[in-house]
Amino acid sequence: MTNGGTLTVTTPSDREVQVTRMFNAPRRQVFKALTMPDLLMRWMHGPNGWTLAVCEVDLRVGGVFRYVWRKTNGREMGLRGVFREIEPPVRIVHTELFDEDWTGGETVVTTILTEHEATTTLEVTVLYASKAARDGALQTNFATGMEVGYNMLAEMLASLGDAQ
After folding, report:
1. Is the peptide bond before 89 cis (omega within 30 degrees of 0)?
2. How far is the C-alpha of 162 from the C-alpha of 92, rounded, in Å?
3. 122-158: per-residue pLDDT in tens?
4. Residue 88 gets which letter from DSSP?
5. Bridge partners of 120?
6. What is the separation of C-alpha 101 from the centre of its chain, rounded to a whole number of angstroms?
7. Any idea what the Cα angle at residue 145 is, between residues 14 and 57, rounded to 5°?
């Protein structure tokens, strides 16, 4: 199983960023990797020196999730959100808000998974509170961080084979 591809970042509207990435894994595996805490703990670590220390997921409409990443120096970064729509293994819509709000308020994240011949395309659209918030996010290492994370996801999916 190979990595699957590189990240593509576009801006479909003044308030949105869309990220697309292919994975050489069936959609059901990618969906599980995005929603099951034991799998999230295996890949969603962030840049080098960070680990996912807290991973709580109540996967139901109205359910909440909470992630806390911890750097080797003890610094923490937290994120929480609420699931608005869940259509396994095709679509998830949820809100997100970082503890240190660097995104200009809550965002709405829509994730769509499509599959063709055991290859899954992940399309994530992030809707920001304003154009300024979107532009601010784009000026950070947002895309680099997502690329690092999705590379770890691809490696984790490859390690699963057809087991999941």
Report:
1. yes
2. 23
3. 999 999 999 999 999 899 877 888 888 999 999 999 9
4. T
5. 23, 115
6. 17
7. 90
